[in-house]
Prior knowledge:
Number of strands: 5
Radius of gyration: 13 Å
Helix content: 10-25%
Distance between the termini: 59 Å
Number of helices: 2
CATH class: Alpha Beta
CATH topology: Ubiquitin-like (UB roll)
Strand content: 25-35%
Strand order of the largest sheet: 2-1-5-3-4
Order of helices and strands: EEHEEHE
CATH superfamily: Phosphatidylinositol 3-kinase Catalytic Subunit, Chain A, domain 1
Structural class: alpha+beta
Amino acid sequence: MTAVATKFAIRVMVTDAWDHVALQVAPEMTVAEVKREALTRALVRPPDPFEAYEVKFRGALVPDEQVTLRELGVGPNAALIVLPAKRRPAR
C-alpha cells in the first residue's frame, strides 16, 4: 500500500504585491518551494533575485527554507508572509 499525499490550503501574504495568495500544498513541500510559488503568482513573474525575500511564520523568521511544512508545523489554513529581506527606504 502506498501513502497518499494529503494537500491542504494555506495563505501566503506577499508584501511586494500587497496580496494574499491561496495555495494547495503538501506537508512535504519545503518553505522555499512555497515562497517561489507565492512570489511567482503574486508578482506574475519569477522573483529576481529569489534570495532577496524571506519568509515568516507566526511572526518569526524561518531561517532554514529547506525545512518542510510538516517540520515547521504548518497546517491547514495557516498563514505565511513573504517579504523583502532588506528594508526599503520610504519615498
